[in-house]
Amino acid sequence: MVDAQGIRIGVDVGGTNTDAILMQGSSVRVAMKVPTSEDIGSGVVAAAKAVMDRANVLAQDVGQVMIGTTQFTNAFIERKHLVPVAVIRIALPATKSILPFTDWPSEFSKTIGTNIFLVHGGHEFDGRMITELREDEIVTVAEQINKLGIKAIAITSIFSAIDNSMEEQAAAIIRRECPSAKITLSNEIGRLGLIERENATIMNASLSTFVEEVVGGFRTALKKLKIDAPLFVSQNDGTLMSEKYVGRYPVLTFASGPTNSMRGAANLTSKEEAIVIDIGGTTTDVGVLASGFPRESSIPVDIGGVRTNFRMPDILSIGLGGGSIVREDEDGEITIGPDSVGYRLTDDALVFGGDILTTTDIAVAAGHCKLGDPERVSHLASDLIVRAEDKIHEMIESAVDRMKTNKNDTTVILVGGGSVLVSRDLKGTSEVVIPENFGVANAIGAAIAQVGGEVDRIYSYADLGREEAMKSAKQEAQDACVDAGACAKTLKVVDVEEIPLSYLPGGAVRLRVKVVGELLEAVLA
Amino acid sequence: MQIDLTNLEDFIRGSAFLGTGGGGDPYAGMLMLKQVLNDGMQVSIIDPLNFGDTKTAINILTMGAPTVINEKIPSGAANVLALRRAEKELGYKVDAIMPVEAGGINASIPLVVGALTGLPVIDADGMGRAFPELQMTTYNVAGVSSNPNVMADDKGSVALISTVENIDAERFCRDICVRMGGIGQMACYPLTGKQIKNHAVLHTLTLAVEIGQSIRVAREDHEDVVSALLRFLEFEKVGRVAKVLFDGKVTDLLRETKGGFSIGRVILDNLQGGNSKLEVVFQNEYMIALKDTMPVAMVPDLICIVDRETSEPITTENLKYGQRVKVVGVSVPEIMRTPEALATFGPAGFGLDVEYSPIELLSS
After folding, report:
1. Distance (Å, rounded) from C-alpha B269 to C-alpha B277?
2. pLDDT beyond 60 at A525
3. Residue A133: inside a domain, yes or no?
4. What does the pLDDT read at residue B257?
5. Spatial CB neighbours of A286, under 8 Å, sequence gap ≥ 6
C-alpha cells in the first residue's frame, strides 16, 4: 500500500444484486456485483470484505462506508417490521374534516393502528399563530400514549415549514412525559401539504424500531470486519445521512436506488446536466440530472398506497430491460415487455439455453454484445431483429422526450447492465455517453460524499422584497446543510424553485431552496 | 342523482375537468367527502326543477389559495358557521345550499356542508365551470346581489360584508381572506327557487359525475377514453358541442404571476403530423386556445387539457414539457353566452383583446 488516503466503500443493496465498490478519491479501484442475501447485513459485510480483499486494503484504512438500501421502502410497502404510531396533529380548530389515515389502505391499521390525537395550535401561511399550543393537552395525550404503550410518535403542525416551534415544543413535552418515545416531526420530513406531510411523518415513525435494528446490524457487522469508519446511508435526493440521522429519518432513504444510479452517472462522466437512462433487467428508469442532482418530483408520490410529498426523484419507469420478453402479434407488430424473465435471464433467455425470446437475445443476434451462445439466436429473421431494435430505441427515445424540460437536444448517460440494448444514436440527444463501470453506477452514487440542506416555505415579497426573501431562504438552507454535516466552505445552491400562491394577492411566494456540500469528515480525511 | 362512496371519484374527476385547469386540487375535497360519507352521513342532491319557486337556497364556497387549503384544511365547522350567520342576517332558514362553481374544489365543499347540516344540495351552480372571482357568476349577470357575503374561519371569526356592487364584495372578501390566513369559508348569493331556475347553470353536479363516469367506464372497457368522453358530451348532453381542439405534445411553457393570478401560455406541437401548433393562454384557468394564432375556443366555453391516453384532467400547475395531451373544447349553455354574461366572464372580463366567438362557429 502506498497511499491509503480517502478510501471509502460504497454498497448498494438492490432487490437482485448487491453492488460494492471501493473508491479512492474520485477513482474506482474495485467494483463487484454479488447476489443480494436474505440477511442483508451479512450480505453488505460480505461485499465490503470482498472489495477490500481484492483491493488489498486494510480495515483501518477505510475512511467511510456508504450504504444505499431499499429495505425501508420494502418494509413499508410490504407492511413488515412496522410499529404502532401515535399521531399528534397540532391543528385545532382547523382540519377536523380530514382526519389522519382517511385515505390509507385499511391493512395498515393492523400494524400502525389508528391512534389519533388532535390538539390546538398551528400557524398561518404568513407566520402568524392560529392559536396557542396548550401544554395540558399535550400532557393528557402523553398519558394516553403511555397507557397504550406506544413508542413511536408522529407530530404534525399546520404550516410547520414556516414555523416549527409548536412541533418542537410538543416534542419536548412528550419527551419529558414519555422518555423512551421515538418522535418524528413533520417539518423535518415533508413539504407543504398537511395530509401528505403527515403521512410521510407517520411512515417514518412506523419504521423507527426497524431502522435501529438495521443500522445496528450494519454497525455490528462492520465491527466484525474491524472497520471503525463512520457509516452513512444514502438518501433519495442524492446526498448522505450519517448513522445518527438515518436512525431518525429512515423514510428519507425511500427511492434512493434510482437516485444513486443517477448520482453515479454524474460522477462517472463529470456531467451535471443530462438525462440518465438506467436499464436494468425488468425496467428502465429515466431521470434528469440538474446541477449534478436528480430532478425532484413536483407531484405527490404514492408509496404502498399512501400519498406523500417528501422529496423523491422524478423518475419515469418503463417496462423495458435486458430480460424483457419480445413477442410478435398476429398483425406482425412487435411488442416488448412489460413482463420480463428477470433474474431467470441466465436460464430462460434463448442464448442461455432457454426458450424465451428476450431483448438480450436481440442484442446478441444483432451482434452488439457477446453473451451465452450466439448460435442459439442465429435462426432469428434479420427483419425481426431490426424491428425489435426499432421498438427498443423508440421506447427509450419516447421516455427521454417525456422527461425533457425543453426541446433542445440533450446529453444522455447510459448506465445499468441493460445498456447493451442501445446500439444506435438516440433521437433528441446530442450525445450518448456510456461510462466505464456503468454497471455499478448505483454503488458509486452511494459513495459520493455529499450532504444536503433544504428549505420550503412561504415568503412575502410584498414585505421582504424578492432579494431579501431569496437571501433568507438560501441562508436557512445553508445552515441546514451544515447541521447535516457539510463542510461550510463547500456549500453550493443546486436548486431554487419559486411558486407564487395562486388566487391570493399580496405577493406570497413559496420558495424552495436546496443546498449541498461536501461531507465534513470526507474533506478532513 | 346521488353522490356517495360508489361514484365519489367520478364526481371528483368530473369537477377537475370542469375546473378547466384551475379551481384548486379537488383531492382535499375528495377526502373531506370521503370522511363524512364514511361516518355514515349522506348528501342529498335535488334537481333544481323540483325545487319550489318560493323556496330558498344560498351558495357555499371556500375563497382563497389552494396551497393553503391543502395545509390548513377547513374543519367544516367554519362553513356551517358562515351559513348560519347568513341565515341570521337574512332572517330565515334556507331550504337548501348550492355550489357557486362546478369546477375544482368548490364543487365538493357544499356537499360536505350538506352532509354536515342535512340540507339538500341543489344540482346547479353559478359558473358552470371554475372562475377566479366572486362576481363572475350567472347570478350577478342577472342582477342578483351576492349580499349578505359572510366569511368565517375555523377560529370562529365572522365577517359580514354588504356591498352595492358584487365586484366590491369580491375585492373586500379577497382581502379579508388573506387576513384569515389565506382561506375563508363563505356563504353568499341567497337565491329563490325561481331565481335558480332562471339564473343558474342547471344540472352541473350531474354533469361532473357523468363526465367522471364516462372516463372511468371507457378506461375499464379499454376504449379510447377521450372519444368516449366526447361522445357522451355530444350525444347525451343536449345542446353541448364538444370537440378535440388539438392532439399534441407540450413543447413550451411560460409562466408568470400577477396579483394572485397564475398567468402563462402553453405551446403544443401536433402529434398527428403537420406543422400546426396550438397555444393555450391561462389565467388560473385555460382562457383561449389559438391554432396557428387563430382562436379555436375561448372563455367562457370550456377548454380542458387532458392526458391523451387516460383523459385525466391536467391543471395549469401540473403542465410539463413533453406531456402528450388532448385539448378538449366544450360549449357552455346559452345563459353563459349573453352579451351581459360575456362582459362579465367572457374574453373582455379577463382583459383579452378578442371578440367572443362560440366554439361551434370556430374551425379547429
Report:
1. 5
2. no
3. yes
4. 65
5. A275, A276, A277, A278, A315, A316, A317, A318, A396, A399, A400, A402, A403
Say yes or no to pLDDT of A1 above 60.
Answer: no
Residue A39 placed within a domain: yes
Is CATH 3.30.479.10 the classification given to domain B224-361?
Answer: no
The whole-number pLDDT of residue B259 equals 64
> Which stretch of A131-140, B219-228, B279-288 has the lowest confidence by average pLDDT?
B219-228
pLDDT average, residue stretch B175-187: 94
Average pLDDT (A32-42) is: 74
Say yes or no: A363 and A350 in one domain.
yes
Q: What is the pLDDT of residue A523?
A: 63
- From A293's Cα to the closest Cα of chain B, the distance in A is 19
> What does pTM read for this prediction?
0.86
Question: Are the CB atoms for A108 and B87 separated by under 8 Å?
Answer: no
Domain that holds residue A31: 1-78+210-254
| CA–CA distance, A11 with A22 (Å, rounded to integer) | 9
Length of chain B in terms of residues written: 364
ipTM here: 0.88
**What's the pLDDT at A221?**
83
Please give, rounded to a whole number of angstroms, the shortest distance from the CA of A433 to a CA of chain B.
22
Around A520, how many Cα atoms within 13 Å sit in the side-chain half-sphere? 10
Q: Are residues A55 and A16 in the same domain?
A: yes
CA of B88 vs chain A CAs: smallest distance (Å): 23
Pair A421, A466 in one domain: no
Q: Which residues of B touch A97 (CB under 8 A)?
A: 32, 35-36, 73-76, 112
Of A95, A126, A405, the CB nearest to B75: A95
Q: Does residue A180 register a pLDDT over 80?
A: yes
Q: What does the DSSP 8-state code read for residue B187?
A: E
pLDDT over threshold 60, residue A524: no
Chain B CB contacts of A194 below 8 Å: 70-73
- Band of pLDDT at residue A313, cut at 50, 70 and 90: confident
- Give the pLDDT confidence of B81-96 residue by residue, as tens digits: 999 999 999 999 999 9
- The grid coordinates of residue A481 equal 446543510
Q: Does A215 lie in the same domain as A113?
A: no
- Number of folded domains in chain A? 4
Beta strands B285-291; B294-298: pairing state: antiparallel
Angle between helices B27-38 and B8-18 (to 10 degrees): 150
pLDDT(A2) > 50 = no
In eight-state DSSP terms, residue A342 is G
Among candidate residues A409, A434, A459, the one where a domain is terminated: A434
CATH topology of domain B8-202: CV3147-like fold (3.40.1610)
Residue B60: phi and psi, rounded to 5, are -125, 135
Establish if A397 belongs to a structural domain.
yes
Q: Which residues of A touch B (CB under 8 A)?
A: 91, 93-99, 102-103, 122, 124-126, 128, 130-131, 158-159, 192-195, 298-299, 307, 401-407, 458, 500-506, 508-510
Nearest Cα residue in chain B from A198: B71
Q: Domain ranges in chain B?
A: 8-202, 224-361
A58 and A119 inside one domain: no
CB B83 within 8 A of CB B57: no
Asked whether residue A360 is assigned to any structural domain, the reply reads: yes
**Backbone angles phi and psi of B87, in degrees to 5:** -60, -40
A437-441: average pLDDT: 83
Same-domain check for residues A59 and A98 = no
> Which residue among B22, B70, B260 places its CB closest to the CB of A505?
B260
pLDDT given for residue A3 in this prediction:
60
